[in-house]
Amino acid sequence: MDDQESTSRVRGDREVTAGDLFSPECPTRQLLDRIGDRWTSMLVKVLAEAHPAERGFAELRRAMPGVSHKMLSQTLRRMIADGLVTRRVEPSVPPRTWYTLTSLGLTLDAPLAAVRAWAEANMPAVREARKIR
Amino acid sequence: MDDQESTSRVRGDREVTAGDLFSPECPTRQLLDRIGDRWTSMLVKVLAEAHPAERGFAELRRAMPGVSHKMLSQTLRRMIADGLVTRRVEPSVPPRTWYTLTSLGLTLDAPLAAVRAWAEANMPAVREARKIR
Predict the structure, then answer these.
(1) Cβ–Cβ gap A65/B19 under 8 Å
(2) Looking at this predicted complex, what is its ipTM?
(3) pTM for the whole thing?
(4) Could you give the domains of chain A?
(5) pLDDT value of residue B16
């Protein structure tokens, strides 16, 4: 797979302007795994609907039924690291923490909404295929 | 969360015509996790580009650099169970196995392509945020 390897080397350079999912060493693969799960999808929707208003941690948990404290924390931390969410600590007593999508995070709403809509519309067909009743 | 619980009960009925990602017991959540990963995304793209032609296992592996035999098998098995892919065994010697997207699987190509395009276009911005160099 010489072609692939040389492609990967080129992709690793700083001149590269876009990722390539089909290049094994391209971080697009890890990125895709990070944004494709249920909690990221829900969080982006909730924060996009609130935007530009911020949301507190407890509000986010209420808006995402079934999410654990740990999963929400992890998802927020990962999205902050990826530059998709900003975190603001309000110096009140006790301090409050607020979250909002960055402009980059906002652009993720439309593509994730397309997959969400597909999953919601086709879940019955998939369930039928799986004979889950 | 009485509202959520009653929604979930309704969602469990056979009259239900669509899923709801925000309902904790709705299988849309598991479905979203299953279709959101890198390998499903790549496999749908490769099979959609080939459609209506079928592809063999070895061809699929070559088209998805970096995928292991095990990961490709698992992804195919899961997509077959979900009604997204069909498997055909050709009674040759040795027998050959062919894969193709179902009509349901084909409809998944566009929404996954939107997320793939987002990830490829914005990977440099995310990498910048993560300071991965």
Answers:
(1) no
(2) 0.85
(3) 0.85
(4) 37-130 (1.10.10.10)
(5) 53
